[in-house]
Every structure is written in structure tokens, then in C-alpha cells.
Design goal:
The chain has 2 helices and 4 strands, in the order αββαββ. The chain is α+β, with helices and mostly antiparallel strands and about 120 residues long. The chain folds into 2 domains: about 45 residues; about 55 residues, no CATH class. A 4-stranded antiparallel β-sheet has the order 2-1-3-4, covered by helices on one side. A hairpin with a 6-residue loop joins β1 and β2. The chain starts with a helix and ends in a 7-residue tail after the last strand.
């Protein structure tokens, strides 16, 4: 063993102590960071687009696979014809997804179409 061995071991021990101290600080801060990140992710997941004026009642909506949870408002328009065009464009781009075209609460179109309705 070289004469530097004890110093090398002491240096390694010092590094381990620093690592333990850093991890301890991380443990204390990780909980606060988790809640901050979770809050921001919840805001991003909110399907309500706050900047859409109220007169844009025709909305193309992207739903989860089961059609239970709204994931995203793809388009909003004040004119139903533009809403239909946006709906067709969304379906053409993502045919495997579930979409609805609504005018307020009124369901105008859906993809894929539910055969049990109408």
C-alpha cells in the first residue's frame, strides 16, 4: 500500500460525508419541490382555456381513450362552420383519438361515433 493510502481513504470518507449532507438537504427540500411541481402540473392539465372569449362557444375537444376525461380543447370558434372544419382537421391529424364538437353543452359531432346514440 502506498503512503498516500490513509489520505486517500480520508478523502473518500470526506466525500461520503459531503454526499450524506447533500442528500439530507435534498430530502428536506424534495417534499416542497414535489408539491410545487405537482401544483404546476395540475394547472397545465386543466382543460379550461382561460383566454378563450365567451363568444367562442364551438369547441373541438380531445378526450381520453375512455371518453371520460377532457384532455385538451383543440380549437374554439365563434362560428359553427369553422368548428366543423377544425373538428375534421383534428380527426384527420389524429384519427385514433376521441374528439367532440360542442356548442356549449350541446354535442354536435363526435369521433369515433358512438353507435348507441341516435
Amino acid at each position: 500500500m502506498s503512503p498516500d493510502a490513509p489520505e486517500g481513504q480520508l478523502h473518500t470518507l470526506g466525500l461520503l460525508e459531503q454526499l450524506r449532507a447533500e442528500c439530507s438537504g435534498y430530502r428536506e427540500n424534495s417534499s416542497a419541490l414535489y408539491y410545487k411541481l405537482d401544483r404546476l402540473l395540475m394547472e397545465l392539465a386543466n382543460p379550461n382555456l382561460h383566454d378563450i372569449p365567451g363568444n367562442f362557444q364551438n369547441r373541438v375537444e380531445l378526450w381520453d381513450r375512455e371518453g371520460v376525461h377532457l384532455r385538451w380543447v383543440v380549437a374554439a370558434a365563434g362560428n359553427v362552420s369553422i368548428g366543423h372544419a377544425a373538428f375534421e382537421a383534428a380527426v384527420a391529424n389524429w384519427p385514433q383519438e376521441r374528439f367532440t364538437l360542442r356548442q356549449g353543452a350541446l354535442l354536435i359531432r363526435e369521433h369515433p361515433r358512438d353507435p348507441t346514440k341516435r
